[in-house]
């Protein structure tokens, strides 16, 4: 699983850099969810198509092959555990044109390793009904948070394989913020622009560290049960977030967030309340990362999925939703007694009133479930 976490983490950082090329835009996606969905497709890929996918997903690091799929099986089972104190709903499904006669061995493997179905639809003569069917399925799987995943006209009779990947997460903070202490404060979008945000406040003991080489504070906010953490990277006032993003690699991220690198200390935390919903048509992004053959009818080799030779990937759509508020991520009503700390010593501050990166990480496997950048309210 360590090798897989490293592969997923490496892919996560490449995606963050790619999706975040426009610095002014907010970014939010689930690398684990995209990795697992693409690895499912990778099971049916052969030849150069498989080699490119392995390279793009950094799976070459984890030895490729069957271990990858068993690794995902273990990871998805752990992350989607029924005992978890958070709610994670992943909607992974491959929708293929029925006339391709998909191999039952491939469908079985999707079920075994990826908790996912391969569903055959009639894109040829019922493309609009197929699109509505897919959207309805995704909405049902994500508690109605992700609707209209596929826009009108995005499915046509030439469509033969769509990979759908949506994820919804809801978790409460281990230490909640008190709503009464949330106030409107300015958020510095850039040197010359400020926008008002609802700024939450919490004074408590958290793990924090300062990384001198990139002039950046790192704060860890645990969710209830401490199975997941939100890790926030906030550069100093005069340092641009771009600098941090350029320096960031998975190896460094792992190094900087190692438990022995973090100090447990009392901190005054200011964090904006925010809601991000992002949708990415992953085709252009994946092509730019080197995964091109899968999308080209003349080059794609998915002979592990169907014995017909002309199958290729028409679309990869990823949509995710996050809401961060006083209770946690995606709200649930809760009340908490507030204790005021009566002491006069100087408490370090972590004030996220300028662009920052955030990651939601599964503590035990160290897998990055979500990556995001909050640039502007």
Automatic annotation (TrEMBL):
PROSITE patterns in UniProt: SERPIN (PS00284)
GO terms, biological process: cellular response to osmotic stress; sensory perception of sound
Keywords for the protein's UniProt record, in alphabetical order: Acetylation, Cytoplasm, Protease inhibitor, Serine protease inhibitor
Major localization listed first in the record, in broad terms: cytoplasm
Gene Ontology CC terms: cytoplasm; extracellular space; serine protease inhibitor complex
SMART domains (UniProt xref): SERPIN
Keyword Cytoplasm part of the UniProt annotation: yes
Location of the protein in the cell: Cytoplasm
InterPro entries, A to Z: Serpin_CS, Serpin_dom, Serpin_fam, Serpin_sf, Serpin_sf_1, Serpin_sf_2
Residue ranges of every copy of the Serpin domain listed in the record: 13-377
An example Gene Ontology molecular-function term: serine-type endopeptidase inhibitor activity
UniProt cross-references to SUPFAM superfamilies, sorted A to Z: Serpins
Pfam families: Serpin
UniProt record similarity statement: Belongs to the serpin family. Ov-serpin subfamily.
Assembly information from the UniProt record: Forms a complex with the monomeric form of beta-tryptase.
Protein name: Serpin B6
Organism of this sequence: Vulpes vulpes (Red fox)
Lineage of the species this protein comes from: Eukaryota, Metazoa, Chordata, Craniata, Vertebrata
């Amino acid at each position: 699983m360590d090798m897989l976490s490293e592969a997923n983490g490496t892919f996560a950082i490449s995606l963050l850099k790619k999706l975040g090329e426009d610095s002014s835009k907010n970014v939010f996606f689930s690398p684990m969810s995209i990795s697992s969905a693409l690895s499912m497709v990778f099971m049916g890929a052969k030849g150069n198509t498989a080699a490119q996918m392995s390279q793009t997903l950094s799976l070459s690091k984890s030895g490729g092959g069957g271990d990858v799929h068993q690794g995902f099986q273990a990871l998805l089972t752990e992350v989607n555990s029924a005992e978890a104190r958070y709610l994670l709903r992943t909607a992974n499904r491959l929708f293929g044109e029925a006339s391709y006669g998909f191999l039952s061995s491939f469908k079985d493997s999707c079920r075994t390793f990826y908790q996912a179905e391969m569903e055959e639809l009639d894109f040829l003569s019922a493309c609009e009904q197929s699109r509505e069917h897919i959207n309805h399925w995704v909405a049902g799987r994500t508690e109605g948070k992700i609707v209209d995943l596929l826009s009108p006209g995005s499915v046509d009779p030439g469509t033969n394989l769509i990979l759908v990947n949506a994820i919804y997460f809801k978790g409460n903070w281990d230490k909640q913020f008190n709503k009464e202490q949330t106030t409107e404060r300015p958020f510095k979008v850039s040197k010359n622009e400020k926008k008002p945000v609802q700024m939450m406040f919490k004074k408590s003991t958290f793990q924090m560290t300062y990384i001198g080489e990139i002039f950046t504070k790192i704060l860890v906010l645990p969710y209830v049960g401490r199975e997941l953490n939100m890790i926030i990277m906030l550069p100093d006032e005069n340092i641009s977030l771009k600098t941090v993003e350029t320096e960031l690699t998975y190896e460094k991220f792992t190094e900087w967030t190692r438990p022995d690198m973090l100090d447990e200390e009392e901190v005054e935390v200011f964090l904006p309340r925010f809601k991000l919903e992002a949708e990415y048509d992953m085709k252009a992004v994946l092509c730019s990362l080197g995964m091109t053959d899968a999308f080209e009818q003349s080059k794609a080799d998915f002979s592990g999925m169907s014995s017909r030779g002309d199958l290729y990937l028409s679309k990869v759509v990823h949509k995710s939703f996050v809401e961060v508020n006083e209770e946690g991520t995606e709200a649930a009503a809760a009340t908490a007694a507030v204790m005021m700390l009566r002491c006069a010593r100087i408490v370090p501050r972590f004030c996220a009133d300028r662009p920052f990166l955030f990651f939601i990480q599964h503590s035990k496997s160290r897998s990055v479930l979500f990556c995001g950048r909050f640039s502007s309210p």
